[in-house]
Amino acid sequence: MALPKQHKTGSKARQRRSQIFLKTKSFVICSQCKQKRLSHSACASCGTYRGRQVIEIKQPKEKKGKK
C-alpha cells in the first residue's frame, strides 16, 4: 500500500479544510407570486418555473366554522 513520502504540516491541512464548509442557499423572488424560492427550481407556492406552470399545487381544504 502506498505511503506518503513526506509529512503534511498542520497549516497545509488547515488550508485544505478551509474550503470545506456549508454554503448558504441563495433565494430569488418568484416573478408570479413574489415569494422567495430556491434558484433553478419550481416555486413551492404557485408551481411555476421560468414563466410556465410545471407543478399543480393543491389548495388546502377549507375548515367548516363552528355552529
Structure description:
The chain is of the alpha+beta class and 67 residues long. The protein has a domain at 26-57. The protein is built from one helix and four strands; from the N terminus they run αββββ. The strands form two sheets. It has a two-stranded antiparallel sheet. Strand 3 (48-49) and strand 4 form a beta hairpin. The model has no long low-confidence stretch (mean pLDDT 88).
List segments where confidence is low: pLDDT < 50 over at least 5 consecutive residues: none
Shape: elongated
Radius of gyration: 24 Å
Number of strands: 4
Total of helices: 1
The percent of residues in helical segments reads 10-25%
List the helices and strands and how they pair.
Elements: H1 10-17, E1 27-29, E2 36-38, E3 48-49, E4 52-53
Antiparallel strand pairs: 1-2, 3-4
